[in-house]
Amino acid sequence: MELIDFFRGVIETSKSPIVICDMDYRIVYINSEADTFFKRQNKNITTGTSVRIYFNEETMSKINMSIEWFKEDINNNKVFSYHIDEGNQDVYIRAIRDDKKNLIGFFNYHEFRDPENGKQYDVD
To answer: Model pTM greater than 0.85?
Structure first.
C-alpha cells in the first residue's frame, strides 16, 4: 500500500472539513467533511479550481496575509481564522511544508473545542 493511501485515510476519517491548496491557490484535495460543510453554505467547491472564486475580497485578503506570514519564517505555520459557535469550532489556516521546510501549500482545519464525553476505548 502506498503512503499516500494512509494520508488520504487520515484526512477522510477526520471530522474536520479539510481543503488543501497549492501555492497557486488551486484546490488539490477536499475531504468529504469539507464537501458537506461548504454545500451547506451553497458552495460547490471542486478540486482543480482556485480557492479565490469561492471567497469574497475581504476573506481572500486575510488568506493572502496568512500565506505571506507563512513565507516569513519556517516556524509560522498556523493562523486562527474564525470561530463557529455550532460545534464549538475554531478554524485555522495551516502551512504545508516539504521536507526542506519550503512552503508548498496550505489547508484549512477545524478544531473542535468541546471535550469528549464518551468512554475511553469504548468499542462495543
So the answer is: yes
